[in-house]
Design a protein that fits this description.
alpha/beta; S-adenosyl-L-methionine; COMT_C; Arc Repressor Mutant, subunit A; 346 residues; Rossmann fold; 8-stranded mixed sheet; 3-stranded antiparallel sheet; 11 strands; 16 helices; transferase
């Protein structure tokens, strides 16, 4: 049997090697982003550039080491060296500010914590066994771990809220919910999606449904949005049952955390109790087939490392829906990694 090889010129080979070195450097870039997010460098630069020495003093850091890290990050467009050893914000660096719209500071802080970082480092375990690296590294599944570590659970919820915020806003803008009387948000966490929806639709009432130790956090968010009087907070497990009678059930960045079997269970539970004519709106990455680049293909690796979940193609959604007594109605693409995937009763 003959072997097939890829033929390249020496110049092409060198370009390919440089590309691979960029991938190699990406590992360190992720660690640097986490470290810089943790000490809040971008927050200190909100009023203008500062020297590495001044930033070190404000963050309790070693000045020369901080300078070297910022110099490397600036070469990728995260911060800019405006003069020798003095740095300012760039549009990329601005996203690391705590108060920036769509802030990703907590996302990178979370990524840098041992319980997360060590899970990603064990992706090889996932490849060998088909099991989540998180459980292997931390001795229990992720949400059981978070329930026992309130500070990490708070950081996780903040990071996920920040990461999902733009996608959720895009989904609300793209999909019309006029006429919906009762919306149930499954895995609604601290109520960010529900507060945005109820703010847009003043005649609607909503139910935020999540684990008993999570859902109380939604009261503050809903109250600040001025919609708590139209919302109900319900604690429970969506793998057992879900609140009944919704005209629409939203599941935002939850289904991709679940195995196909658990996804079928939650969808079946919704199918049993949803009102006649109701819809299920899933906000998740919708992975294209083939080699097409898509952020969801890397989000899927996150799911593989942290849980038994997966991001799905349209074909894979159809398979799951059929087993839950649902059918695909439509998909609405968003200007983000995620889409709105709509299912109705079969």
């Amino acid at each position: 049997m003959s072997e097939k090889t890829v033929s390249t010129t020496s110049e092409e080979t060198e370009a390919l090697r440089r590309a691979m070195w960029d991938f190699h450097s990406g590992l360190r870039m992720g660690f640097m982003l986490s470290a810089i997010a943790e000490i809040g460098v971008a927050d200190h630069l909100a009023d203008g550039p500062l020297s590495a020495d001044e930033l070190a003093a404000r963050t309790g850091s070693h000045a020369d080491s901080l300078y070297r890290v910022l110099r490397a990050m600036a070469s990728k467009g995260v911060f800019t060296e405006v003069s020798r050893r003095t740095f300012g914000l760039t549009p990329l660096a601005d996203i690391l500010r705590s108060d920036s719209p769509g802030s990703m500071r907590d996302v990178f802080r979370l990524q840098g914590k041992d319980f997360m970082r060590n899970s990603y480092a064990e992706i090889g375990y996932c490849i060998r066994t088909g099991k989540p690296a998180f459980d292997y590294v931390n001795g229990e599944e992720m949400f059981a771990y978070l329930a026992k570590h309130p500070e990490m659970n708070k950081l996780f919820s903040g990071a996920m809220g920040n990461a999902a915020g733009d996608t959720q806003q895009a989904a609300i803008a793209a999909y019309d919910l006029t006429g919906v009387r009762k919306l149930v948000d499954i895995g609604g966490a601290h109520g960010h999606l529900m507060s945005a929806i109820l703010s847009k639709y003043p005649e609607m009432r909503g139910v935020v449904f999540d684990q008993p130790h999570v859902v109380p956090g939604a009261e503050k968010v809903l109250t600040e949005a001025g919609v708590f009087d139209r919302a109900e907070l319900v604690g429970g497990s969506y793998l057992r049952e879900v609140p009944a009678g919704g005209d629409v059930y939203t599941i935002s960045h939850v289904l991709h955390q679940l195995s196909d079997n658990d996804a079928i269970t939650i969808l079946t539970n919704i199918r049993k109790v949803m009102a006649p004519g109701a819809r299920v709106l899933i906000i998740d990455p919708l992975i294209p087939e083939g080699d097409a680049p898509h952020p969801g293909k890397f989000m899927d690796i996150t799911m593989m490392a942290l849980s038994e979940g997966r991001d799905r193609t349209e074909f894979e959604f159809v398979e799951v829906f059929e087993k839950a007594g649902l059918r695909l109605s439509e998909t609405v693409g968003l200007a983000s990694p995620s889409s709105v995937v709509v299912a109705v009763a079969a």
